[in-house]
Amino acid sequence: MVRKSLVSSLLAASLTFAPAIALAGEGAECQQAQMSAQAVVDKHLKALGGRERLKAVKTLQVTSISKEGNTLTRMSMQRARPNLMRYDKEKDGVTSSKAFDGTQGWSAEGSAAPQPVGKEKSAMMAEGAAFDDALLDPKARGTTLALDGVEEVNGAPAFKLVLTRGANKETRFIDQKSFLEVKRTSAGIHEGKAYNKTLSFSDYRSVDGIMMSHRVQWEGDGSKGEKVIQSARYDAPIDAATFKLATPRS
Q1: Mean pLDDT of all residues belonging to the chain
Q2: CATH class in words for 2-244
């Protein structure tokens, strides 16, 4: 699950604009006929809670339960600016943790002592630990952003925002009415292997003034499942030592 979430976070770079987009079939609202990629991003960020609110966030804590077939995974995620993260999970009675402390990636399983991960894996974890979403500053993240028309998702039109970084490509589907993300597809190379993945987002709720999807379904590379958020909180204090994997796992 940690690996999947890290893959999902790969993005970022120079901004390009699509001059106009096609209408999403008959009956689409005329005012949606012409929008730039940046205009869609701006409306999306506003729908989430606003660019200023998103940039002001210092920490995020989330607990969730994921189901893949008959397997349940309980997970706790903790993140802090600028690039600190920790994931603790329990799957099939086995606990494990992964963390990035701002410099080095760590992992631990069961009662074994935490160990630093290799240089390549640590670099990947560092990238996944970047606190802000790529849409807040695509250029700084090395991501190219473009608008690729409109596609129907769950019976409603959605803008297709395409984010490209190297060999990795991600398409985010932004609902035309709510301007919240309803679907995401990603493809690329991860640890030397090609991957394809689709995520579906629903059950949005406000958490400390920021809209968050509380139900995420995924499918790809022969597996499928869903994650349900149990609790979420922004800006609660987190001890920096938490990200060293030196504290007991919860």
Answers
A1: 86
A2: mainly beta
Phi and psi at residue 44, in whole multiples of 5°?
-65, -45
pLDDT band, residue 221 (cuts 50/70/90): confident
CA distance 232 to 193: 32
The answer to whether the CB of 38 falls within 8 A of the CB of 17 is yes
Q: Strand runs (DSSP E) across the chain, as ranges?
A: 59-68, 71-80, 84-91, 94-100, 105-109, 115-116, 144-153, 156-165, 168-175, 181-190, 193-207, 210-220, 223-234
Distance CA 39, CA 177 (A): 14
Averaged pLDDT for residues 171-189: 95
Q: What is the separation, in whole angstroms, between the first and last Cα of the chain?
A: 17
The residue to which tokens 């706790």 are assigned: 76
- Amino acid symbol at 190: H
**How far is it, in rounded angstroms, from Cα 250 to Cα 1?**
17
Beta partners for residue 195, in sequence order:
188
Average pLDDT rounded to a whole number, residues 146-173: 95
| Torsional sign, CA 231, 232, 236, 240 | positive
Of residues 60 and 1, more confidently modeled = 60
The encoded tokens of residue 77 equal: 């995620």
pTM to 2 decimals?
Answer: 0.82
